[in-house]
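Narrative summary of target 7.
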Amino acid sequence: MRQRPRSPWLALGLTPMMTLLVSCAPPPTSRESPVTTTELPSATAPPDPGVPPPDVRLLPADAPRLTPEARPQNQLTTWSESLADPLNIPRAALQAYGYASRSLERTAPDCRISWTVLAGIGAVESSHGRHGGAKLDLTGRPSSAIIGLPLDGSPGVKRIDDTDGGRLDGDTRWDRAVGPLQFIPATWQKWAADADGDGVADPHDIDDAALAAGTYLCDSAGGDLRDPDRFWKALMTYNESRAYGQEVLDYADHYGRRSRELPVAQ
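Modeled conformation, tokenized:
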């Protein structure tokens, strides 16, 4: 049985042969809206995929730039309203996970990634953008930036010198993990996505981060994420810690099973 996440150190791989450390800041003394106050049973891969989001219209590559308020994830407002409070996931985060999973159905149809997998990662990484008391707004951005500790070679931490001139993490000496899904800058440079059509690929925006994380996982799995072996392969390249992977799996499965108990509007 597992308690809610404690913001562990996380590892996000650039390639199967090169793993870089990312992190969430140490747990605050209190956290607004914990993911859940109940213990979760240990799940077995793959996690329950949950009630699927309705079909969405994906942004074409040549679409004009949108304002944050016009994000295409808003198509999932009704679906997210049915699930947000019972699952204790912000509406914008649910919309981001659902839209990313629908997008990847088109771009990586063999992957079959579910929104619950992305939600499990979001839960462990940052309580869906609420780490340290932050609040996720309706456009998918935390009220305060979620930035990890410097990757400076301290005990238990890999050393990663600055790779982005501080553009993403505000640190010109060391890299730091950033955003609701805690990308390190070097990893973001490879997997960056603009999922909401605002013209900016931003790891601090959960819309962009969810699609980038899903794309990364699908690429790492090399096939169907609902196959247990491929699920674990992808998650272990995202993070080398088996305990981390199990925590993600437990949350993902919990969200999926719980969603099936609810009257979900499409």
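Confidence is low (pLDDT under 50) at residues 1-37.
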